[in-house]
UniProtKB/TrEMBL annotation:
This is Cytochrome b562. Residues 1-21 form the signal peptide. It comes from the Bacteria. Gene3D superfamilies: Cytochrome c/b562 (1.20.120.10). Keywords: Signal.
Length: 141
């Protein structure tokens, strides 16, 4: 009995709705996003510590990861089986959000270099909004 209970518990974890509904998310994009999260954390602790020069290095890395992410296809597009015109429209939408994120990061680099801390704060908020927009529109895993 114990064995079958354990098996059932394991199955219910493995087949949780997220795993079942969306599949695993072992994409190149997922890997870039993990790097983006790490770079964001490092950048924000540099800003708190007043090390703008090091923060600029992390912003440059963020720009590179978003440039790489731009040519990736979100898992959701495959999961939803998007094709033809619909795939084209959604890809253009996705790239638009990535492009505006890159523009904000370039502005952030400028604000860090000129020591404009209120602008830095404002742009942090704008990056958070891009993340929410990107995840609510294109992330399903
Ligand atoms: C600085 C801002 C961002 C951070 C820190 C971030 C972080 C992450 C992290 C940690 C994941 C992995 C899954 C998770 O743990 O939830 C993820 C996944 C994802 N993110 Fe972001 N993200 C950011 C911005 C964006 C933007 C702007 C977009 C879209 C334009 C985006 C699209 C996605 C997608 C589509 C996935 C799922 C991966 C896939 O479909 O293959 N993210 N993100």
């Amino acid at each position: 009995m114990k064995k079958s209970l354990l098996a059932a518990a394991i199955m219910s974890m493995v087949c949780s709705s997220t795993v079942f509904a969306h599949g695993s998310c072992d994409t190149e994009l997922h890997g870039y996003m993990i790097n983006i999260k790490d770079e964001m954390r490092a950048m924000s602790s540099d800003v708190k510590a007043g090390d703008s020069q090091s923060a600029v290095g992390h912003v440059e890395a963020l720009i590179t990861y978003f440039e790489k992410s731009r040519s990736e296809v979100p898992h959701k597009f495959n999961h939803d089986d998007l094709k033809g015109e619909e795939l084209k429209i959604q890809t253009a939408e996705y790239q638009k959000v990535v492009d505006s994120t890159i523009t904000i990061l370039k502005d952030l680099k400028g604000a860090l270099q000129s020591g404009d801390s209120s602008k830095v704060r404002e742009l942090f908020g704008a990056i958070g909004e891009q993340r929410n927009l990107g995840h609510s529109s294109f992330k399903d895993c």
